[in-house]
Specification:
Blueprint: H1 2-21, E1 31-35, E2 40-44, E3 58-62, H2 75-84, E4 90-94, H3 97-105, E5 111-115, E6 132-138, H4 144-155, E7 163-166, E8 170-175, H5 178-202
Parallel strand pairs: 6-7
Antiparallel strand pairs: 1-2, 1-4, 2-3, 4-8, 5-6, 7-8
Bound molecules: zinc ion.
Length: 203
Amino acid sequence: MATALAEAAREIVQVGQFLSLRNFVPATSGNFSRRLDARHAAVTRSGVDKGELTEADILALDILAPPPPGSSAETHLHLHLYRDRPHVQAVLHTHSMVSALLSQLRQAERELRLTGYELLKALGDNRTHETTISIPIFPNDQDIPRLAARVSEDLAKRPDTVAYLIAGHGLYTWGRSMAEARRHTVALEHLLTYELETMKVRR
Ligand SMILES: [Zn+2]
């Protein structure tokens, strides 16, 4: 597992620099993880600027066990995805301005429906803009195990969903590789921006 951990840590350090440059993880916010095998994942530790991660900031942990001290406060939200969805290889959580703002503004709708955008083809296996993608919005909760249970229960009814929002907080998305999770993050940042800009125009 040492080789898998070193490779996962390299990917996480790189994605941290990429997302930090785009202002998606301000201050020490956000957290990232990578599956190592059927039973283990690598997760960022808490309290570190995600643009300045080193391999020492990446912890290996058991996806079936309680997160160890020092791992990100939101580790539960990563682990349930690895448990619930065996194909998930990477999970990225960002706190960008648009994800926090739009999820707050649209919280009462409980989901964001995205329709007609060419960029929808960057999500999962979509092959057309002529579709509607629903991104659930969950209320923020400082009780992370409770929030993880709620998200896990809701996502069980949405097997094709590749992302969700936490109101006033940020975005979670995942992929079958780190590259796919990164593509989802960037595409969703643009799609959320389209929605926020449309709201301004329609005021
Ligand atoms: Zn967060």
